[in-house]
Specification:
- By secondary structure, the chain is mostly helical.
- 76% of the residues lie in helices and 2% in strands.
- The chain has ten helices and two strands; from the N terminus they run E-H-H-E-H-H-H-H-H-H-H-H.
- A two-stranded antiparallel ribbon has the order 1-2.
- The chain is globular, with a radius of gyration of 21 Å.
Length: 309
């Protein structure tokens, strides 16, 4: 038995006992991380570079790319480093920072995905009011509110989680530090204090989900009433990527948290860990596949870079 004052480090989940699987884990994470780094960096650079992309939709997409870069950079590099060193350790301070940034970035991403649904709703269902409701100042305020509220939320939960007495050892059954796993190390019913904070959070997340669903019901009704096939195609091209990103975000998180406890093996642990890092790597591809405007701007940027060389 140990308490939180004597814990100097935590032991993260070990993926595999064999060197071959550890090497596979490192290679998969390296490929995913490089894909996320390249894809999101290109999205950010393209939107920042081309002035005709300085619209609300692309402004929020730039923020999403920043969040995806932060999310994958919070967890994956440490896991790769541990695989190479054949280690499981993360310092107490490192675990606190990792949990804070992870909660902060995920909370901000949920808020941003909700704002992006609102953006598409106004653009398609109330196009005459789009400039008024989503002007540059309104967009900046919405993005700032998402980042600031996520920061306060993460600070509250991180401080509360690590103020709990820990007496169940220091082994975290996950490849990064997260609230549910730290709560499992707490003493007796002390963890209920944090659980009561998580209940309102779950209600807010559910409220965001309902808002997104209602928004898209209205959007699809408006799109199907459009007389022009070209107009319908353009509307779907801007909405479907957001829906795909949202579905990937929800499905990967749901599988990771709701999978039966009986499903536990080196292979499944590796699969779930890779699943966590899939959305940040795939999101840029999803947004650029159907968006001709973004693809053209990206092609122009890359062509210009190669011509300068």
């Amino acid at each position: 038995m140990s308490n939180s004052s004597s814990i100097t480090h935590f032991l993260l989940l070990s993926f595999a006992g064999t060197q071959q699987l550890q090497l596979l884990h490192f290679c998969l994470f390296l490929a995913t991380y490089l894909a996320a780094l390249l894809g999101n960096s290109l999205i950010i650079t393209t939107i920042a570079w081309h002035h005709h992309l300085h619209t609300p939709m692309y402004f929020f997409l730039l923020n999403l790319a920043l969040l995806d870069l932060g999310t994958i950079s919070t967890t994956v590099p440490k896991s790769m480093a541990n695989s190479l060193r054949h280690s499981r350790a993360i310092s107490y301070a490192g675990c606190v920072l990792q949990l804070f940034f992870l909660v902060f970035l995920i909370a901000a991403e949920i808020s941003l995905l909700t704002i992006m649904a609102y953006d598409r709703y106004v653009a398609i269902c109330r196009p005459l009011h789009y400039g008024t409701l989503l002007g540059s100042r309104a967009c900046a305020h919405l993005a700032a509110a998402a980042w600031a509220s996520a920061g306060l939320y993460a600070l509250l939960h991180t401080a509360n989680t690590f103020s709990l007495p820990l007496c169940q050892g220091n082994a975290v059954h996950q490849f990064f530090c997260e609230i549910p796993q730290i709560l499992k190390l707490s003493c007796s019913t002390a963890y209920l204090r944090e659980v009561w904070l998580l209940v309102p959070s779950a209600c807010v997340v559910f409220g965001c989900f309902v808002f997104i669903v209602v928004s898209y019901v209205q959007i699809f009704r408006a799109v199907l009433r459009m007389p022009s096939e070209q107009g319908r195609h353009k509307a779907f091209a801007t909405c479907l990527p957001h829906l795909a990103v949202l579905s990937l975000f929800i499905s990967s998180g749901s599988f990771a948290y709701l999978k039966p406890p009986s499903i536990s093996s080196p292979f499944w642990n590796l699969f779930v860990s890779v699943l966590y890092s899939v959305p940040p790597a795939v999101n840029p591809l999803i947004y650029s596949l159907r968006n001709q405007e973004l693809k053209a701007a990206l092609s122009k940027l890359l062509t210009g870079c190669f011509q300068k060389q």
